[in-house]
Amino acid sequence: MNTIKLLDDLTINHIAAGEVLEGPSSAIKELVENSIDAGSTKIIIEVKNGGKSFIKVSDNGKGISYDDIEIAFERHATSKIRSSQDINKIYTMGFRGEALASIASVADVTLTSKLNPNLVDITDEIDEKAYTYNIKGGVFGTIEETNANPGTTFVIKDLFFNTPVRYKFLKSDQAEFSKIKKIITKIALSNLGISFKLSNNGKQELYTSGKGDIKTAIYEIFGKEIANNIILVDRKVGGLTIAGAIGSSRVEEAYRNKELFFVNNRPVENEVLTQGLEQAFKGSLKQHKYPFCVLNLSIPAEQIDVNIHPIKKDIKFQNEKDVFDLVYQSVKEALLREEFLGQGENRNSQELMEQYVIQQEKIVPKASFLQNRIAGFDNRLKKNDNKILNNYDDIKAVNQNLMSGRNADSIIAKDTYEKFEYKFIGVVFKTFILIQIGDTLYMVDQHAAHERILYEQVKASYNSNNEPDTQMLIVPSILPLTRAEVELVRDNKEIFEKVGFIIEEFGDNTLKISGVPAISYDLDNNSIFQDTLRELESFGRTTKQDVENRFIATIACKAAVKAGMVLTKEEIDNLIQNLFKLPNPYTCPHGRPTTIKYEKEELQKLMNKFKF
Ligand code: ADP
Ligand code: MG
Questions:
Q1: In terms of Cα–Cα distance, which of 447, 422, 435, 429 is closest to 597?
Q2: Which residues have C-beta within 8 Å of that of residue 203, sequence separation ≥ 6?
Q3: Which of 217, 214, 216, 280 is nearest to 249 (CA)?
Q4: What count of other Cβ atoms lies within 10 Å of the Cβ of residue 340?
Q5: Which protein residues touch ligand 1 with a CB less than 6 Å away?
Q6: What share of the chain has pLDDT > 90, as a percent?
Q7: 10 DSSP assignment
Q8: 285-340 confidence digits (pLDDT tens)
Q9: What confidence tier does 612 reach under pLDDT thresholds 50, 70, 90?
């Protein structure tokens, strides 16, 4: 009795279709990748009903010859791989040779193709005829002559018509279309030299000109607002490179969906990359906001685990730490560079980049650059070129030391710091301090700025091993608390103490406060404690570090001068001097801007815009 049967081709193709074809978007991905492989410079994708009823992909690539038409639809028919050893090397797109066979087994597919004389290798005896060919549900038709432009067009109707269960799993037209758009967006961004056009039900949804530069592509896909606020990234460390663009801190997204990563030009979703990016943006964006990026990493194929499922977008790196560092450092550097040079001004970036040295596979910024950074502006610190700081934590430490005056072991002594010059213009609405530095007008929010300064101060003291900065109270406060509040205080006692509170349980549900953080001495101590406690209650479940950061931010916020308070000239000078010493002075700990700047040129442009 023969119970083992070979599966027939159609069944195999159905199974394969189940594996690689999730729906219209994955069919389109395969077709477009084939078009790219065929050397196309223009690819047009038209769909109806989110691709469920109709998909058309046309290209101007090299075309498929008469002899290859039927073969192309055979399983494992591929012109792209010679032996199984190649598989490890191939980190380009399709190499499985089964996409067309799979699609044709579950849809009505019509291929029209004409060889493109400009792209075919063999120039003699070029076939000038165009051919068309139909396969429906794996049933082959016959090849017929037709008229067409050079290149290839695939029309796919009624995807999953013979696999109703799979059809049922498709989402709404709109949902399927947004998957398509997402994929085409990624493909367009990783193929800047190719023009893409995508439409749904006759309406154009995406267009790129294929001009070849990232900025143009970002403009075409995401619009002017984002394109005008990007910072270019281009860096090589060891054998790894990273290139593309990130949004500045002015670009804030509600979702992660504009964090676009590519590895060797292939779209990927990967936690190491996401973390590297988001960590670098920490403190630059508001809470619950996400950055924008289009970043491509080039990594030798041997350092990537390729044994992952073909449709999985995730990827595994052999050395995750190196990859994380590459992303983190490059993004951080780009943010600092833009902040340092001001809006959109990249003319000195090369110079700044050159000041970076690479040591032990790690990016180590030279001290001179750092000092400028710390000072915020040139020449405010004396140069100390031979001292090298090892990483951004050191930079932070130096900043914090400068800020808090705790400079004993610091690499740059405090006395090398010189006051920097600015022109004080005035205060408006008892809230915004206006100053001029060179050709730039700065509008500093006194509350946000002070909050930021205090935040850094408390944080520095919090992270140091020194005694907390405490101000003892002459008369301790006695505070009645609820049961839950007592619990909360107990759970977070260490944090309270590290920021400078001296607290003690005092009988039932009562707390004695005998010391408070030095910065909040002038304030109503009971209320600052209670406010912090209330904030703590609202934090919910989160990491210890997050709680600490938010705790410190709350204290800073409560202790900072408020809008509407009148400051003396001396206080203003102090505020400005301290603010611009910070590594990233432009946002408060909650991510709101402390400062808005206007270049003279910008203001002039603004004026001209409204000229009659
Ligand atoms: P793979 O892309 O893995 O080789 P596919 O099933 O996607 O397998 O395609 C099979 C073959 O059909 C390709 O190797 C290629 O030779 C040919 N082909 C498919 N699409 C195109 C196209 N748009 N232009 C030229 N040739 C194509
Ligand atoms: Mg393919």
A1: 435
A2: none
A3: 280
A4: 17
A5: 30, 34-35, 38, 59, 61-64, 72, 77-80, 94-100, 152
A6: 37
A7: H
A8: 888 899 999 999 999 888 887 555 555 567 888 888 899 999 998 998 898 877 76
A9: low
